[in-house]
Amino acid sequence: MASNPFRLHKSIFAKFTLSFISVGLIPLLILSYISLQTFSGFMERYATNNYEQMLLFASRNVDDMFVKYNNISKLMYSYGVGGLYGQLGQAIAAQSKEQDIRLTMTINDFLQTVLYTERNLQSVFFVLPNGTYQSLSKNTVALDYQYPYPKVEWKEQTKLNRNGLSFFPTHKQDYFLGATDPVMTFSRNLTDVLGSFKVEGDIVGTFYMDVGLGVFTEIFKQMVLNKQDTVYVVDDQGIILYSNQLKLIGTVFHANTSDDYLHLQQATAENNIQIVGEFYKKELFLKVEQLIRTITIVIGLCIVSLIVVAVWFSNRFSNPIRSITREMAKVESGNFDTKVTVKTADEMGLLSHGFNKMVGRLKEYIDVVYVAQIKQKQAELNALKSQIRPHYLYNTLEVIRMSAVAEDANEVGDMILSLSHQLKYVLDYGEETVTIKSEKTNVEQYFQLMVIRYGEHRLGLDFRFDADLMDCAIPKLSLQPIVENAIYHGIMPKTGKGTIRISIEKLPDNLLSVTVDDDGVGMSENTLEHVREKLASGSSLDTSSSIGLINVHERIVGLYGHGFGVEINSSQHIGTTVRIVIPLTKEVNVRVERHSS
Question: Where is the HAMP domain (predicted)?
Fold first, then answer.
């Protein structure tokens, strides 16, 4: 069984497909990889920058929150008593010393005014220097009067921070019964700036504000957080003031060290408070991953489409070649009754059409060669037959000649001998060209017969050429027909003796000139023109007058080309000249092997 010529590693289909895919797929993969890497990096940076901006915005809002409650605490110095602004500290100091019953009302009015200035204020306290205090709350909870308010550490910090705003981290309202919501506390001392003679004034009380964590909720509500994202507000002691994970509020902050989280941090400008964000990367970049996944699917579809198109195009390109190859194998096996179906008008269609045309022409040529071979065999058979006929003719003529000699008819014997030589020369197959010497001998044998017939008083023959040219080649039987025409058409119609001259000379450019002229009756202009036309056309209507010239002319043209042939000139009552120009050569052309006689 013959091996498959379309093995995968040698198939043009596989090569073209791989080339097509390589040219299209590799750049697509490289471009896709670079694009995905660039896009994903850009989206990650964009998301990171977005969260950094949100944390920065949150830190600024925290600073603003401290500024707001600092300003609220300063309302003590602008709150009016008795129609005069800034008298609260002096009034409290005076009423406290005089134990004025209006002291409670004065503090209560101030607390009530402040409590409702900001919605996130949960409760307010005013603590007198003697430890007594008054409070108001928005919550429906009762104050635990047994609780030592304020805490000792609050007192110490407020004492140290005499004129500033003190801040106490997120804590539970233990001083209210049943309160569960954590709060932050701000405090500020109230000094008597008007009634005291001291530089800083006497402290007449301390104002405390409990602020609910809703203030942080308002700050961070603009941040879009995922379920596993966590934000922290951490003070300078590491205490978590606020977190979206409520259970972590009030505990010590510990950073998540997992690589699954993006860690960002932003400090406030005024209060040493850190805004910390821990964002879960999978959720943070979920949309990015979804977009990348979508792009990857699109790229995959493009790759599949490219492969499908490459296979389809390669198969469409290689199928006609395979078809031609299969039909070519049939032709190689000798089956010429095959044809490739032409389906397209492109180059492959032209190739298929050319193949069909080639097979048809090849079949025609083979048929011609086959017929030629048959004809050649027939010619060889005829040649074998012809070998017998001249041999029989030569022997018969020899018997007749010997009989004539025996009867003392010597002239008849000589004529038979000359005829025998003539026939032998004429019937000697195979030679296209002979030497001038051989052609000269044949002319002499022919002329001897003519002399015997017409007598020496009517005919004369004159040869004029150098002995060096005797071995040069000349077409066989090229002189005898011309000499015969000169005798019958030139000299015989003439009264008296006529002479035929044969001249051979060497010309420049390695050419040989053979001239046969006679002094016969010549030809008229019309007759000469008629002969020239027949030589040019290669036809003879008057076979008795010009067939010999036409035969010689056609054989010279066939041997040497159209630049050579017979030229004829004649003048009436003067004579005729026939000239042959051929290449000078000493090679004798023999087309087939000469048979023996």
Answer: 315-367
